[in-house]
Amino acid sequence: MTNTRIAAIDVGNDSLKAIFGRMEAELNIPNVIARDIEDRPIIGIEELDNQDPLNGIHIRVHSPILKDNNAIYRVGQLATKSDNSSELDPGSSKSEEDQTIIMLFAALALDAVRDENKQIFKKSNNVVEATYLLGTGLPLREVKEGKDVGYRSQLLSAVHQVEFLVTPKYQGQKVNIKFDEVKVYPEGFAAFINLVMDNNLNIVNKELIDRRILIQDIGGLSTDIAVIKDRKVDDDKAQGFNLGVSESLEMIREEIRSRHGVELDSRRDVVEIITKKNDRNHIMVKGSRTSVHDIVDRILFELAKKQYRILRNTWQKNSQTEICYFIGGGSLILKEYLKTMNNKLDGYNIDFFEDEKESIWMMANAYYKLISDFARKAEKVPAAAPKEEQKQGKTN
Fold first, then answer.
1. Cα angle vertex 75, ends 71, 79, to 5°?
2. Smaller CB count within 10 Å for the chain: N or C?
3. Beta strand 122-124 with 127-138: parallel, antiparallel or unpaired?
4. What's the confidence (pLDDT) of residue 354?
């Protein structure tokens, strides 16, 4: 019998957000990877195990579903410091990128090797055998194109291995990952679930349940807009656009480099500059505090105009819409620009999530609610049911 652990993972374009077990563990890792060598140089190797593993994720990933199998990577914070770091490009499909898989497996492996999980997963000769019940998602555009089916089948098709190389605390350990089940949810539907239901899928926002709602999810590489009617996503009207904030962040990063000679490691550095509470839109240039407000405002205002055009066109085609919720990391960056524009122009009924974590973690929370509900129902399958319908082991 195998113990199966719940994992709800949102591989966002900016960062991965993951919730495990009975919500007792979570991870947030920048979605950045960099190819590396096996023996990466490190100062103070004897102090390695005193460091945070999240700041030094260095792994070899073996899986037949990867285009580049058995390669070695720096992941997350460690990768942002590399000259060859890679972030997802505009126009790419999340379901078809090795980077999505690598991030997913890295997060699962980091959870599997935790000391707290010794009673759940078997371990022999530094190899952990981990089985997960995974809830994750893809943009509406990719789901409408049927890419969720292939993505799910690939994950289920094999045992995947992550080997920790020069990683704090976990060096030399391997994790074999397999999936008892994988559920891939469309992101717009997941957002609706998170808006109206609690962790047990009980309706908590009754005032929203029968309203006509738009959900505009602004991500790094794309924007999904879901039309909610009669408590479900209208598949015919749901749309995905290859328009996110990543390209604008790169433009800001490049202009800061060319104008001020300051190299920022990644898009995440740009996000920190434009969202931090103190000294927002300021950088240090040769030790002097310097404003980049004009650069940020010009580039983000242009992006906000494009996002507002999407809202206007969608609302015109769905004239009985009652409210539009802006979600995702991109909505936090563009919030003030969109509010200002809406006040001057159409005055639509729009709303944002003031709680930054709630907005950023919305998808991961939704996947957790959905996969937990699936697990509860699976445990109630009658004993006489066909063998393939029964859950193996218990779900943690």
1. 105
2. N
3. antiparallel
4. 66
